[in-house]
Specification:
The chain is an alpha/beta fold. Helix content is 22%, strand content 28%. It has 13 helices and 30 strands. The strands form 5 sheets. An 8-stranded parallel barrel has the order 1-2-3-4-5-6-7-11, surrounded by 6 helices. It has a 6-stranded antiparallel β-sheet with strand order 9-8-28-29-30-27, with no helix packed on it. Strands 15-16-19-18-17-20 form a 6-stranded antiparallel barrel. The two termini are 44 Å apart. 43% of the residues are buried. The C terminus is likely disordered.
Amino acid sequence: MPRSLELLAPAKNAETGIEAIRHGADAVYIGGPAFGARYGAGNTVQDIERLTAFAHRFHAKIFITLNTILRDDEIEDARRLAWQMYEAGADALIVQDMGLLETDLPPLELHASTQTDIRTPERARFLADAGFSQIVLARELSLPEIRAIHAKVGDGDTAPILEFFIHGALCVAFSGQCYISHAHTGRSANRGECSQACRLPYNLEDKQGRIVAFDKHLLSMKDNDQSANLRALADAGIRSFKIEGRLKDVAYVKNTTAHYRQLLDRIIEESPQQYSRASSGQCSFTFTPRPEKTFNRGATDYFVNGRNAGIAAFDTPSFAGAASGTVTRIGPDWFEVDSEEEFANGDGISYLSRGRKLAGLRINVAERVRQHQRLFPNEMPDDPEGFKPGIEIHRNRDQAFERLLEKESAARHIGVLVELAETSDGFALTLKDEDGIEACATIAHGKEPAKNPERALAAVGESLGKLGATDFKATGVNVALAQAWFLPASTINALRRDAVEKLIAAREAARPRPRRAPPLEPPAIYPERELSYLANVLNSRARSFYKRHGVEMIADAYEADTTPGEVSLMITKHCLRYSHSLCPKEAKGWVKGVNAEPMVLVNGKERLTLRFDCKACEMHVVGKAKKGRTISILPVAH
């Protein structure tokens, strides 16, 4: 059987989730009222009910993020919330804290969050054996590593689905392995309150205190874009393709979802025996998707095709936009640009000023003057050295494109074959949808020959194909009558309306609700016997889970504030020695053999030591908790 490829889109709220479904998502992940790893992106039970009702019309799914680590006093509230999400119609729970598996959870699929740091075949196999149906792999994996995990977990009907991020912001640290925010501010990334220290500017010093890089965003990554690698990822075993962005606006979700819908559809059309859609309906768009038009920090495919030097966004963590031309002249309240693009009133322009700092302008009026475009900004830059003829400009807001996305920009319809036939006392209308689901409505009606048979048959066929504001679109109409009968429009409308209602009911009856996979018995043995603070064990239920699976020594999570002294506050595959040509594996000439360790990141009074594990090809950002910081206590859902 063909393997379904799932396009998984983010949603900040129910409205955004509905638009994601309209624009082609097979599934949406969204936070419930609490414990969703994105503080400020919670939704009510009623919001979830509304979203699931819409998604299920297309056999699309809704996954609830219940993926923070939990204190002991939060476990019961989280368990209760899981049941509320089940009753609201959700299809799966995305979980980080293994303590939840020691409670009475509803019979819902469990998905292992990327926060569980799934980088090895052994970790993936264990999670599958523990009852997880879908596992979100680490963003840092390469194609060979993904293939190795796929080989370990298998590809049968009971094998877990492998999920992988294909677009959006990249955490520089291995997910679940970053503690800088908690150490410096008391706000834990593992509890949904990351302060994003990775987006700050730093100086980089070598062991002698010399400046290697000055005032750069050295831990800031470009954004993930796997557009060119989807087929390779599918062939390596990825079945769920995830777009990042639960805090992003609806324009971003519409644009990126439509973009990847078209790319995945192309793969499915090219290999129908190998791959299939994961939900129902075909999408049409009123715009051409262009992901580069909505917020991004530049594009990288990260480590999917191996290590490369182009993964970091050192200059700015903001949205610069695409290169759009060069300044040619500057007037008192205008400047002219040489560009192949047409600018419009309301466009946003950015440029790198002195010190390569990103600066921005909003265009009030754009007009063409001879071969150039003259742009009148809301305020001229007061930066004669940084803004002058010859400087490259970028457009980070395309007003015309944004207005397209503000409107209704997509429709999604399920294809149906329509057939009208005779019965002994009237007529029967059968609808068969693209999933093979059928419904039939009948009506008793006299059979009076039509006065104009040809016109009557054409009118009946045309009327039957008008499915209006329903979720369905006729892909074929067959009028299978012995002869042309007179059928009033009201009769046809009633028959069609009844058939559509029955098809909706039949589709709901045919929609299987995913159930939780049974864990292996006796319990699978965890790949390690000892767990450090990196395992994020914050409650007694999680401790019991790991002991039940053979772990003998378990340290407290870093958030318990029992880990003393300096430790690795961030572990990352991004290496500043490599990006500054100081990698001992890559160095040539005089640099070869230079001992660049330790290095130090400096932001104001903050100093973070960098240590390098060359065997694992990882960088550790080392530090300790600040004194006097306030520990954030998130509100608990009731």
